[in-house]
Design a protein that fits this description.
about 140 residues; alpha+beta; five-stranded antiparallel sheet; 7 strands; elongated
């Protein structure tokens, strides 16, 4: 990556994931028999304004906060996907107990039917009665 002196870049540290802004304060170009290299010195966001070689920092380097955010979100989504895949694989030990969706629907329909046929009545003395609504309809002549 090429940076300009005075440019602010963002470092996502690997050991303890945090994002730090740093200032490119020096560009060092070196020519040798092995070729040309470019390195950078950055100023850390400390009160003392400590400077360090960028190559010595164990971090991912980003030019913008947007690129930093995208990278962090991608990593988080990958970790979430991995956790869910692991949970799905582990849940296969329960496959013998799993009921299919048709059974779940029929159980839910039975529960709704039961709720529609019965009502609860507060008798006033702390007692609650459950009455069959269809029996009330028979008494009233409906």
């Amino acid at each position: 990556m090429n940076f300009s002196v005075g440019q602010v870049i963002y470092l996502l540290t690997r050991k303890n994931p945090k994002v730090y802004p740093v200032l490119i304060c020096e560009e060092i170009q070196k020519k040798s028999l092995n070729g040309k290299t470019v390195s950078y010195v950055v100023r850390l966001p400390t009160g003392e304004g400590n400077e360090i070689d960028l190559d010595k920092i164990d971090a991912e380097i980003f030019e913008t906060l947007e690129k930093t955010r995208s990278y962090i979100v991608e990593r988080a989504e990958a970790q979430i996907d991995q956790m869910l895949d692991d949970a799905k694989k582990i849940s296969e030990i329960f496959s013998q107990f799993v009921i299919n969706s048709e059974d779940i629907n029929s159980i839910a329909e039975e529960a709704v039917t039961d709720e529609e046929e019965y009502a609860t009545v507060d008798l006033g003395d702390g007692s609650i009665a459950r009455i069959n609504v269809s029996d009330i309809n028979k008494i009233s002549g409906d």
